[in-house]
Every structure is written in C-alpha cells, then in structure tokens.
Amino acid sequence: MKKTIISIVLLVSIGTPALHYGQNRAASATQQKTNRVPISKVLDKLSKTSKIQFLYSSSDFKDVFIDENSINYSSLEQSLNYLKKNYPLEYEIRNNTVILRKTASRKTIAQTAPDSFSAADTLAIKEKKIDEVVIIGYGKVKKSDATGSLTTVKIDSENDGSPVSAQDALAGKAAGVNIISPGGSPGAGSTIRIRGGSSLSASNDPLIVIDGIAIDNSSTSGSSNILGMINPNDIESYTVLKDASSTAIYGSRASNGVIIITTKKGTKKTRYQYSSSTKVSYNPKMLDVLSADEYRSFMKNQYAGNAGIINGLGTASTDWQKEIYRTAVSNDQNFSMTGAVKEIPYRLSLGYTNQEGIIRKNAYERMNMSLALNPSFFDKHLNINLNYKPSIENNDFISNPASGAASFDPTRPVYSNASSYGLGYFIWTDASGKPITQAGANPVSVLDLRKDQSKVFRQIGNIQMDYKIHGFEDLKLNLNAGFDMLKSDGDVFVPDNSPLSWTSIGNDGQGLQEEYSQQKKNLQLDLYADYNKSIGNHKLNVMGGYSWQRFWKSYDDRQTNLTGAKIYRDIVTKSEYYLVSFYGRLNYSFKDRYLFTATLRNDGSSRFSKDNHWGLFPSAAFAWKINEESFLKDKNIFSDLKLRLSYGKTGQQDIGGDYEWMQTYTLSQSNAMYQFGNQFYQTIRPNGYDPNLKWETTSTYNIGLDFGILKNRVSGTVEVYKRTTDDLLNKISVAAGSNLTNMIFTNIGSMENKGVELTLNTIPVKTGNWQWNLDMNLSFNKSEITKLTLVDSPDYGVNIGNVSGATAGTIQIHSIGYSPYTFYLYQQEYDADGRPIEGKYKGGLVKDKSPMPKSYLGISSKVSYKNWYLGFNGHANFGNYVYNNVKSKDYKSKTNPTTGTYSNILSYTAEQGFENLQLYSDFFLEKASFFRMDNITLGHNFKNISEKFDLGINVSMQNVFVITKYSGLDPEVYLGIDNNIYSRPRSFLFGLNVNFK
C-alpha cells in the first residue's frame, strides 16, 4: 500500500499515461548460486545509487524476485536492460523517472531457484493501466475520475514542429480549440478561441494559467504576443478546460475556457540537455502584380492617346516585392540541467531565440530563463514548488511595406538623386519639384529609414506550498503566492526629409521621435484547504478557498518632431482593478463508478459598481464509468467507457476599460489645449459610462463520452455542448445627448453556441520495432446572436468589419439570427457568360456567409522504427468564407495618375478586374476552406554512442503546403477580412539534441 501511494504521488509529478502491450520472451534458467530478493528492494537500491525515481505498481510485481548478483548497481542502464531481458517488464524514462510496466505475456524468469520454486518461476501477468493524472483548477485529479470536459496535450519534442511561441505548440492538438496565427511576422502571437468564443465586444480570449498564476492577457505595447515570454521547450503539458464544470472554479475569467500550462520541474537525478536548431525561411508566394514591361503595356492600352500619362511612365524596372523580401535565417538554443542541491530537486533552463522575418529588418529576439525548485520536508508532508521565469524580448518592427510594394509603380527606381527631397530615395514630386504629400512612400525607404524597436522585460514567479497535516493526513492546506510583472520600452524614429516624413506624420518633411513605455503588475494570492476521505465504497474530496488578484498598469507615449518643438501625441495613463473570490468544490464517488462534482465560486470585480460587484457561478457534473459495471467489466470489450453530464455558469468582466461603470474625465493632450490670451490651458473632458454595468454570464450544458477499446489502442471522446451567454457586455451606439459619448459599454443581448467535438487517438501499429501513433480531432461549432436590443428588431444590426479602400467602410454585421461577423454585402449580378456586371446588384445589402468555420480538424501522426521517427502535424478549416480585400481594393482606374503619382495593380485586375472601386460586392467573398500541413519531421536518435551522452538529429519542414480554392495568398484569416499580405513563411529546419548522462 505504501509503495502504491508513492507511485501515485510520482505519477502526479509527471502526468503521463502508462500503456504497454508486450511481446513474448523467454530465457532459460542458469545453474548458479543466486541471491533472490524482491524487486522492490533492488529498485530502492537503484534509486539511491542513481538518484532517480521509480514509478510502478507494487501489486503488479509483488511476486517477482530478482537475482541480485546479476544487478550492477553502479550502472542504471545495464541494470534496467538486464531486468527487461529476463523479467516480465518493460521500462521507459521520462523526466528522470523510470516507469516500469508489466508485460502482458507469460515470461520465464532466468534464475536458479530452490527445488520448491516452480509455478512462481513463470508468472501470468494481467495488464493493468496506470491512471493518468491531469491538472485541473486548484488541484489534480485522475483522468478516469474527471467529470468535466478537458483535454491534456503532452509535448512530444520529436514531433512538435519546433514552435517559437507557446500557442503554436497547441495548434491542431485539441478538439474545440482553434488557433489562428496573424501572418508571417516573427514573434507574433496567435489568436486562441475555445468553442468559438462567447462574447461580442468583451474579450474572447481564454484564461491562461501558468504554474498556478493566472496571467494578464491584455495586449502589451512593444510586444505582439502575450505568451512570448514562455519558451515552448520549458512546457511539460497543456490542459484545456472547456465546459462549465471544469472552468467554473475560475469563475469570472473562464467564460471563454481555460488553458493551464504546466512547465517542467526538477528531479534529483543530475542531467544536462542541450538542443539547437537552425531555420531557413522564405516567402512561398507573392502577389501576382504587373512587371515593369507589363505595366507599361497596360498603361499604353488603358490610356491610349493620352500622351501626358504615357510619357510620364518611368524607365526603370523594379520588382518592389523582391526588394523588401529576403531569405531569413533563424536559430534557437536551449540548455537545461536538473539535479539536487542538498536533496532539493531543481531544474534550470536557459533559452535564446533569434528569429528573422522574411521582410528585411523585421526580427525577434528572446532570452529566457526558467528556474524550478521542488523541495519536500517533514517526510514529504510539506511540498514546495518555487518557480521563476524572467525573459527579455527585443523586437524590430516594421510598418509592413508589403502592401506598398505590391502597388508602387514598377517603372520607378529605388534610389534617385534627381530631387533634394527623400534622402537619396525616389520620392514623388510635382511639377515644381516639391514632394506630393498624398502619394505613397517608397516602400524600400520606409524599411531602411524608419526605426521601430522595443524591449520587453517580463517576469513570472510564484511559491506554492502544500502541507499535509501531521496526524490528520486527509487534510491538506495550500498556499500559492505569485506575480506577473512586465516593463516595456519602445521608440520609433523617422528622419527629417525622408519620403515617409512627407507622405505621413505631419506631411511637412519633419521627422518623428516617439518614445513609449508600459508597466504592468499582476499580484495573486490563493489559499485553499483540500480534504480527502475514503470509507468503503465512498470517496469524498472537499476543497474550499480564497483568491485575491490585483492588476495595475501604466502607459506613457510621447511623439514629437526631432527637435521636440512640435508635439503629435502626449499620453500618460494609469489604471488598476481587483478581483476577489471565494470558491469551493465537492467531489464524491461511489464504488469508483459513479462520480459527482459540484463547484461554487463567488467573484467580486472592481470593474462594476458596489451594487453589482459580485457574481455567483455554480456548476454540477455527473460521470458514470460504464465499463466498471458487471455486465461489461469481464467482457474485455472496453478498456474505458465513461459517460459525463455537466451544467454550470461562468462570468465575464474583461471589457478592456477598468472604469466603464463610473464617471471619469480625460485631460486633453498638450497638442490640444485651449488658448486664453497668451496662455494655453489643458481641458477636462467627461467620458461616457453606464453605472448599471454588471457581469456577463455564460451557461453551458455538456454531454461527453470517453471510450477506449483494444486495451486503449483506440481511444477517444465525443462531446456535445450548448452554451448561452446573457447580459452581453456590448459596446453600442447611444442617442445623441443621452450620454457623454456616442458609444458605451452596457449589458444588452444574448448569444448561443452549439457544437460537437470528436477526438480519436489510435495506435494502428505496435509490433517489434515498429509503432505508429495517429491522433485526430474534429470540431463543429455554430454561433448565433439571439438578442441585441431591449426590444427585438430583425432589422437592427451593429456594423463592423472595416476594409481598406478609397471609400473604406464596413462589410460585416452583428444581427439577430446570424453568427457574429456575418458578411453584409450586395449580391453581384452576372452576365450570360458568368462575368460580373460592374455596378449591378440584386437588390440591397444581404446578410450572408460567415468567416467562422463550420468545422475544423487537427491531425498528428508519428511513425517510429527503432531509433528513427517520422511525424507530421496538420490542421484544417471547413465552411468558412474570406473577403479578399487585397483584390477588392484594386481596380483599373486606380492607375490614373490624377495626383501626379502612378500605381501598380494585380495581374488579375488588369485582365478581368473592375474599372472602378466595388468594395461592397460579394464577388470578392470567397470560399476559404483549407488544409494546411503545418510540419513534417524526420529524426534519428543515436543511443549509447558514448558513455557520456546520447545524440539526436532531425530535419523538418514548416508550412509545407496548403490545399484550398481561395485565390488570395493565404486562406487562414482571423475574422475573414484579408488585407494583410505578410505571408506565412515556408521553412526548413535542422535540429540537434544532446542528452548528457
């Protein structure tokens, strides 16, 4: 029993399933004197001599005796190989823990036994699954005992695609989780949506918890990724909480799901690991625009007889896209060490990432450290986890000149000394030789002359103490105190007389000097008690606690000309808010077959008035282990079959502003002061507010079925859910004169989400030296707005979705009976040959088509043969539409140089495009279903090539291919408006891993 308890504790620390299907082996007995001892004694000695932990079920090996004379205690590897060869077991080493498993076959134990030793020599082993432990809110639970909808994703370093950001490592790995990267910019963060999101104007981002710290996931000046500080190499696992039963314990911040990130911890075994990768990236697809010769030919045909336009064409031949793009080289270095100092396990890791963008000058650099200390005291009654993760991120941003490069006149040179303006770069000038301020800036000059850099220092740390009371071990007390602090500094510089200083900023040739800084402080304190008791067939777990969190931030931004005399912007802001919570959870199981969970959380937020501070969020769940029933238990059909039912409520208060419920005032900027005589005074402007602002509430019903057959070689989950959000925190228009602004946040409206999720994990092949793992998940989701106003009106809608173009407006709408961000466009008329008739439409604007996928797929495969492995990861969206704004804002008459400047167009536009701008035609709305092969990796591990280290090498390809009918550069566009042409790069990567023994 004691060994079983130790095994469970160890299993909690590594959280990994132990499944094995063995092979038949036999070894003949030798005739020599033996010293037969229980295997537990041998493993205890090996653990002490090698300073490594063993995980196994004591009941599985209670009848196994070992010939101790054959064990070399000075060599762990030799001892394990001997045990594997001669006894009924297999082993693997994970995180410096040796996991032992019984084999499923009869095995003859090689030993010289006394005459009475007969049947015990040969053991008939019955396989038993070691239950996986998963992380949940404020605790851990055996996966078989989980009643809520959750998914655990373990990081497989051999088949993770070498991600730079923490979000990318999760892409396509969990049903119901959709991750969309913003494009090709290095270091950029991806958008995460769990079950489609539950809000309209409030945040739809999930709550992210890193080692017990609920981080601040608001945007940061100078950084484009809220998880940029986390090195994926330090992540042990992700746990995604999706239904209200699993998320309600987090209450106010859990309406959009929860992602719990668990980082790697220390062990007592001294071990060093080093990994290095080099990546070469290029742009796989550029916009098809007219070349210089094609452009000249088009202009001569388009404006035949207009000598002024034709004679104004340049003589150069410039491919502006090639001028800004490059082949980028990036590298990633990681070193980690684990061990113990005076019996205190530790893990220390250092990481360095240098990622170049495929557009020149765009770069991202990260330096990070992760330190974990995990001591235990008082015979493991007091367990402490200390975590500290500082990081520095350096960014070289660009203003994305790709759009300008696609439209800039290809007959003009990059450099020109024909004008005293532009610092040696070509610049558009009028007949008098003065710069044309309405012109576009030379895209190469924008890259070369504009500097935009930032440095972000962030540190996350906490101390977590878990004390099991002496003499009353059923009760544990837990303290978690932590922080998430950030400081960012950035500057933007544009020199005087540069092309950009004439076409933007002040349009007067004066440059720009901008300096900005931001600070954030997130402090957190959690205290809870956890009581466990088992009596016969009854198991009870009760947890109750208190949480306090403070969020504080400040922001300064000052923009001037280079002398400081002219001020463009001068902003200083500070704000804070608090969250206070009381929470509890009850778990009860009967016969380890019928499981009940109830949670309750009472949240208080300072973002609401004192009358609306508090929100109460309950949940309840039931699970039935059907495979444990007598009518199935002995059938050997299902290794797992569990039905889950749950209902609960979660809250939302993340609306961006901290004081939307109270009267506030804004002090005017220094460039907007009021003059009295010779003096200038700052003014105070009242802001709009809603004193009755309160919690947005989401209710979720969930039905789930977990299954496993063929001894879990085929396992999976089916989930069906319905989620309803009421009292939507919505930003709406208000009648003139009724408030102090035309838009306020208020509680109005409802939305409904329905969906089905399928997860399938398989091992199609496991024999000899071969193993093939194939995992897939498929998610269906439908969102519908059911209420937007106090009095329902099918004609009312909120126009959103800005597009680019000469008369830019909105092309999407929030409307009752439709999904959020439904496209709102005119239906194009076509001629008999199927060609669009310019300017002719079928009636008025029509609500139709959604940018949200009807379903999305994730797939992962890995084939292993001896020390070789080949893996891939991919994902797909189905049923979504994208508005091609790159194509829609392009039209033939755009090339008319009425302002004295010339513009290039797409080859498509020159051949088939409209003569004039047609932004609101659904002709540009395209089906954008796609399948993307995210990465393919081939690797080989060189085991035992040296007594001091093992070596692994791998080659991989990222963004391998995309299958789609979409005509634009890339169909994967968040919210469905494609006006960003920074392509996702295609990359080739070489990796090296060294594990020192």
Descriptive report:
Helix content is 9%, strand content 47%. It contains 13 helices and 52 strands. The strands form 12 sheets. It has a 22-stranded antiparallel beta barrel. The chain is globular, with a radius of gyration of 32 Å. It starts with a helix and ends with a strand.
Mean pLDDT: 87
**Could you tell me the number of beta strands?**
52
Gross geometry:
globular
Helix segment tally: 13
- Tell me about the largest β-sheet: 22 strands, antiparallel, barrel
Which structural class should the secondary elements be placed in? mainly beta
Quote the distance from N terminus to C terminus: 33 Å
The helix content, as a percent range, equals under 10%
Main attributes of the structure:
52 strands, 13 helices, 997 residues, 5-stranded mixed beta sheet, disordered N terminus, 9% helix, 47% strand, globular, mainly beta, 22-stranded antiparallel barrel
